[in-house]
Amino acid sequence: MDLGEQLSALIGSIYDAALDRTLWTSVLSKISDFVDGQATGLLSRDSASKFGNAHYYVGLDSHQMLRYSETYFSFDPMATLPRFDVEEIVSTPDLVPYDEFREGRFYQEWAKPQGFVDAAGAVLEKSVTSCAYLSVNRNESQGMVDDEMRRRMALIIPHVRRAVLIGKVIELRQTEAATFADITDSLSAGIFLVDASARLLHANTAGKVILREGDLLRVIGGRLAAADTTTDQALRESFASAGRGDDALGIMGIAMPLIASDGERYVGHVSPLTTGKRRSAGARYDAVAALFVRKAALEMPSSPEIIAKAYKLTPTELRVLLAIVEVGGVPEVAATLGIGATTVKTHLGRLFGKTGTNRQADLVKLVAGFASPVTS
């Protein structure tokens, strides 16, 4: 399996774990393999407690995890992660001088006996009083956290973050429809569950607002329809493909730009509910796909520079990437930025190479992955 196939399979597993928490241990093991780590955990902390909470972990026995949670958590440099931005990838030397780390209790009494020499972590969610994060430890044979490990973590962290958030708010198998509706109402994105014929089965509050305005999406005869006829046809085909299974639509679904009748631009992501745990979740509502819709205005708490850091983009490449999301194709981007279309195409080619994509729609999906799905 090449890197692209491995990444696609891993991302699919991550979103499956959002619906079945028992899968997280297996997913963390796959993450360890993908980024070349030894021990990986989903952890949290709160300001009122001196203890760490390891929700899921691999690569450590229960005794060592208990020692970490009860005694050594407060000495771990990763305990200071909340002062960093969400999804920012940091290693031990970013948190504390490495010589000082090696002389401290955490390394001498807990990390060193297990052969751990470094760790990479990223905040998934934080508030004034709490923080959730992913941490991956490396052993002596793997060496210190390097650029390749950071690059691979940057590819999966947005998806882990979204899966953790979705897992907190969507538990279709265990939650009645009314409770499900209450929870999804906290999401800023419009969410629509549909069957293969585009029949609307559920919409959250943000989705109902979009339908009430009627200039982007509307319900006609019980069917979800786009105001733009071309977009409507694309959505119909996507929902029908989802009904035929993942081979038709792809495990991760598709992203597409949406344009309202007033010219306002949105990003839509059609995600199939027809594989693994997602199939059993969707069956409750006869749903085959979920459509997530949000404005393509990059309304995200994280700075766009986070994207540049993750993919090593130059300032100009970042401008072109954001312009593609905000205004559309090459001619529009060229006119907006005041540069030639050939120059835009050159930067677009570099963006494809650095991000591992080959379509502008994939770039839209990539940027959307950095946005927070929760209302502020």
Write a brief caption for the model:
By secondary structure, this protein is α+β, with helices and mostly antiparallel strands. The chain contains 17 helices and twelve strands. Residues 172-177 have low confidence and may be disordered.
Describe the overall structure:
This protein is an alpha+beta fold. The protein folds into three domains: 3-169, 2-Layer Sandwich (Beta-Lactamase), CATH 3.30.450.80; 177-295, Beta-Lactamase; 305-368, Arc Repressor Mutant, subunit A (Orthogonal Bundle). The protein has 17 helices and twelve strands. The strands form three sheets. Strands 2-1-5-4-3 form a five-stranded antiparallel sheet. It has a five-stranded antiparallel sheet with strand order 7-6-12-11-10, with helices on both faces. A two-stranded antiparallel sheet has the order 8-9. A hairpin with a 2-residue loop joins β8 (217-220) and β9. α1 runs parallel beside α7 (147-169) and α14 (315-327) crosses α16 (341-355). The protein starts with a helix and ends in an 8-residue tail after the last helix. 39% of the residues are buried. Mean pLDDT is 83; it is low at 172-177.
